[in-house]
Amino acid sequence: MKSARIKLIVAMLIFGSIGIFVRNIPLSSGQIALARGMIGSIFLLLASRLVRQKFSREAIRRNFILLITSGAAIGFNWILLFEAYKYTTVPKATLCYYFAPVFVMFLSPFVLKERLTPKKILGISAALIGMFLITEIGGNAGAADLAGIGYGLLAAVLYASVVIMNKFLKGLSGLETTIVQISMATVVLFPYLLVTEKLQYVQLDYIGWLLICIVGIINTGLAYFLYFSSMKGLSAQTISVLSYIDPIFAIILSAVVLGEGMSGMQMIGGFLILGGSYISERQG
Asked: Model pTM?
C-alpha cells in the first residue's frame, strides 16, 4: 500500500512538470505531441515486456474503433494543451485542463444515462464560477491569454471524450488501453503533420532533443507506467485525492521556475475548479 501510494505521488509530480519542459522545446505543439506519443509508446511497450503484461488481441480487435477514435482524441488533446501552454500561463492552462471532469459530469446524463445529482450540479456551478475568476473576464486578460484559456478548455473537452469512450471499452486493462491509445495517437498524428506542416526535428540542438526525450520517456512513459502499476494497491478515493497533486505541483513549479504567479481572485477560481472537479470524481 505504501509503495503504491509513493508510485502514484511520483507519477502525479511527473505529470505536473510537463508544462515546464514543453515551454522550452522549439517545435510546434503538433510535433511535440507526435514525439511524445512515439517515444512514450515505445517506452511503455518495452516496460510491458519487462513486467510480462499480456495483451488481448481479441479484446483490442473488438474495441478497435473506440481505441483509434480515443487515440486520435488524445493526440489532438495534447496539441491543444501544448498550445495553451504557449499562449497563457502554465497554471491557467492546467486549471482549464482540469475542467475535463466537469465536462464528463455535465455530459454523463446524456451519454452515460447517469442522474445529475444536487452534488454534481454544485460541482459544475463551482467550477463555472472558478473559470469566470480565472479568465478575468472584464479585467486584464489579453487576447493571447484568452486564446490560451480557449485551447486549454478545448483540450479538456477532448480529454473528457476519452474518459467517456473508455467507459465503453471491454476486456482491456488500464495499461493495455493506454499503450494502444498512445500508439494510435502517434499513428493518427504522423500523416496529419506530414500534410499540415514541415517536420523540423533535424533542426533541434542537443538541449531540444534532451527535452523531447524527457517529455516522451519521463513525462509520458514512466509516469503512465507508475500510475497504472499503483492501481492495484490503492482505493479509488485515494487515487482521486492524490491525483490533485498534478495541478497543484504544476502551479507551484511554474511560480518557482517561470515566475508565473496568480492573483488572489485567480487562486480562489482555481480552488473552485479543482473543488468542482473533485466533487464530480467522488460522485462518479
From this structure: 0.89
